[in-house]
Amino acid sequence: MNSNCGVNMAAFIREKAALMPNKRAVIVPVGRDSSNRVSYSWFTFKQLDEETDCYARGLHKIGIRRGTRTVLMLKPGIDFFALTFALFKIGAVVVFVDPGIGIANLKKCLAEAEPEAFIGITKAHVARTIFRWAAGSLKIFVTHGPKLFWGGYSLSELRVPGNVPIEVELFPPDEMGAIFFTSGSTGISKGAVYTHGILTSQVRFIQETYNFTPEDVDLATFPLFALFDVCLGMTSVIPDMDATKPAQADPVKLIEAIEDNGATVMFGSPALVNTLSRWCAEKNKFLGGIKKVISCGAPARNDVLERFHKSLSNEAEIFTPYGATEALPVSSVGSREILGETRKITSEGGGTCVGFPNPNVTVRIIRITDDPVEKWDESMVLKAHQIGEITVKGPIVTREYFRRPDSTKLAKILDSDGKSVWHRMGDLGYLDEKGRLWFCGRKSHRVSAESGDMFTIPCEAVFNNHKEVFRTALVGIGEKGRQVPVICVELEKNLVNVDFNKIKTHLQEIALKYEHTKTIKTFLLHDSFPVDVRHNAKINREKLALWSTEKLQ
Questions:
Q1: pLDDT, tens digit, for every residue of 336-382?
Q2: d(CA 141, CA 70)
Q3: Range of the domain at 163
Q4: pTM of the model
Q5: Residues 453, 501 within the same domain
Q6: Number of H helices, E strands in the chain
């Protein structure tokens, strides 16, 4: 695809349909028989391309055209793929909002996006009507399932077959193609503006990073990432699970999908990988067909990587890409490098290695500030091993948040060339002497104590080594500059005769061994940490800080 002449995500589907028409593109579970064996439905690449044509004709007929902002709220399935690429094919702006962010946030996000069309399941339309989502802007309604009192069109009415494939129009790389709302796990949900150039660059960079082949079959447990699968020519297998609750995925059903479809690749959040790895270890289950695992959404724990490796072949590797909704992929690292080299540094508080930056992305570490930075200045840049804010520049970096100028001002820095933009990741970290990037936690989660700033990942890692500790979270109590550091502790499940006072004594002894944790005196037991809605892996330290404050009063 020549980006100088225009680009379009849907062009990848047309290309793959020509190259491998009969290869399965998407496989989804649709039910079970009397013996509880799962039944699957699928599209080949040729069928997927033809189905997107059918929907593209129908979308255009009802008034959804180039630039029409269109909310898509469908469950993971073949229609989700067909409609997404149909919208890209005609140049509509696809609005993706995670339903798990809650009713109030959904209403706020959709009010900001001011969509003109809404394509969703019946349940989504009921909620839209009751809570009046984007009531002032929505004009076109398409329902997947029973259409009730709100009118509009049913999905079946939208299919318009034709004998001649429709032309895949190519758009300028800087034209808006989608709005992806952030999960809001560390603040308000914001709509990151994706151009057609960013979308197609992501496909190219993911391929360059992981060297996927058309022979690969991906178990895709996160629907949005599954869209990249088919663009890369992989078969995307959607397992029988609730995609909004990856930590609760049933390992039996995940393995069923892997074995039924010959999966060679697996994408899953750290929470899902943790659940699956524990089950495999307990049942002595070997997943010999899996060659690559992509774990994304939060840093992967070394003990989880080590445990899951024992269930995979010697050739297999677990990769942990680093990025955000606003910029992805920034960097990536494999489990061999982590377990063979960087894990010791991590366990001693050196942060989590997230690998070498993508060759197409520039990464710089700048001085920590909570203020806007209008223009790039090289004097802000820190040297190797100095912890600061991670900033990135490149073809996969979004330039703005949709209709949020204040948020854009805080997160973006205009480059010295006056054209390109640096994105402030909101994360802290450093570059080592080899040029690898190390993650040290969110900027908003740093504890501002009298002795100086304390960073979450380096502090928590030394306590996570305790065999009875599942995970910990550093929070600060009190006013900035004089905050008291507190470590919240979540223990491993199913422990018998737990004496937390004894564990706390051990943790206090560990704290004294390290310069960066020696001032931590307070440890609080918490039953189950609050986590983000998208990956169930990012700890909500804001909630834990409030809980800790109440606990210590």
A1: 999 999 999 999 999 999 999 999 999 999 999 999 999 999 999 99
A2: 10
A3: 8-31+39-171
A4: 0.95
A5: yes
A6: 17, 26
